Amino acid sequence: RSRAGDDAGHRRDRNQLGGEETATSFFCHVILQDGHSMAEDTKDTKSSNQMWGGRFASGPSAIMEEINASIGFDKKLYAQDIRGSKAHATMLAHQGIISGEDKDKILHGLDTILSEIEAGQFVFSRKLEDIHMNIEARLADLIGPAAGRLHTARSRNDQVALDFRLWVKEELQKTEAALSGLIAAFLNRAEEHADTVMPGFTHLQTAQPVTFGHHCMAYVEMFGRDRQRVRHAIEHLDESPIGAAALAGTGYPIDRHMTAQALGFREPTRNSIDTVSDRDFALEFLSIASISAVHLSRLAEEIVIWSTPQFGFIRLSDAFSTGSSIMPQKKNPDIAELTRGRSARLIGGVTTMLAALKSLPLSYNRDLAEDKRAAFEAVDGLALVLPAMAGMVATMTVETETMRKAASQGFTLATEVADFLARKGVPFSTAHDITGALVRLCEERDCELHEIDDAALAAIDARLTPDIREHLTLEAALDARMARGGTSPARVGEQIERLSRELARQRAWALDYRGPTP
Ligand code: ARG
Asked: With a 6 A CB cut-off, is 368 part of the ligand 1 pocket?
């Protein structure tokens, strides 16, 4: 017997073991529910083994079928799969590889399938394993033998690389738009609160006065970097995989530039082995999503702290908070907490992807069927938390009086005293010591820096002249910080203006992506 015969015989024997089928299918129903209905399981249809025909003498065991099936989640790629197949068939006909008549049948059949799926009428079969074979089998039902020509000069390996890349590209574009929404919310709040004083913190201890506008603009910078990463990721993945075939390329006279162009890619990929092995586009998306999630989580943490009665810096709108079932006075920052919690799962997603890739030899390995779930979940997560946090930021009430009061407590203007002395020629370290003595005196007397009388000032150091008090206001401290990046309202105003213009420009770019970042 040949080796192939042995394998087939072995499989047949196992499938004939009476009890195994029943036990296995019960087991499968219990453990493998990917959101597919029982109708899918029981539908009598060709199995994937029959799809690849002659080599297999029998069908798969029930457990093989269960572990093999990815349709429960990869059906999400139906639109990309159909787009890709239409571009491929059109190119095949253009190159004279299939007839125009077959191409027309294929395109028409694919359109029918698209509307069936969108109308919820398509029956997905787990026996047919994945989205590619589900669609191809239905195409054969609809148009007969011409359907068999669609898979000329391609493999599921380049097909899945294409579908997944198209999907990630679209999701990156949506992520960019959602990030822009969040950035716009912060720009609006920054403009509104360009002069609102709040305490700035280090170690969560009151440090120096800043403006709330300046604090909002810190988030504009942070989420602006995320958006930049998204744009670079779009550029990196913007190459068409289709035509790499199984791994070695194809001998048919295909035109990969034609399919690349039809599918909106900048150009075709250059190495067929890399093309079917590569999932960097998904990894990059998941990394970016995780970085953004961590940023959102830091913001969430601030919202949680600021909205406590102890801080009282902000009040959340009713639309973006919840109450307690037992304590009527409570208003909880659930969105912020859930966002902080979600970030854990997004971090898990990138870890999953890294771990899945780390030991894979080139080129395609079946492990790669597992790569999509992490990306799908990341998208679901981000698509929720980005607009939720944007809405929360846009609608929260800023308690300007509370912020201002907090900004003047805790000797936040002590640095002004040290700077005043240093400007008079006192070395900064000596100025620091003198100021320390002044702060100690204020603590003893339970008063503020500007309340110390002239004689007591002079007793600490003769250079502590009464005109120091001009510098001991919150506004003076803000205005003094004029150097690039500082909190002076004039500087922050310039940043708001510059970044608002930039946002408008980038939104226009995002709507009409054609090439590299302007
Ligand atoms: N569903 C498969 C995936 O997600 C498609 C590629 C299968 N290719 C293969 N040679 N088994 O990766």
From this structure: yes
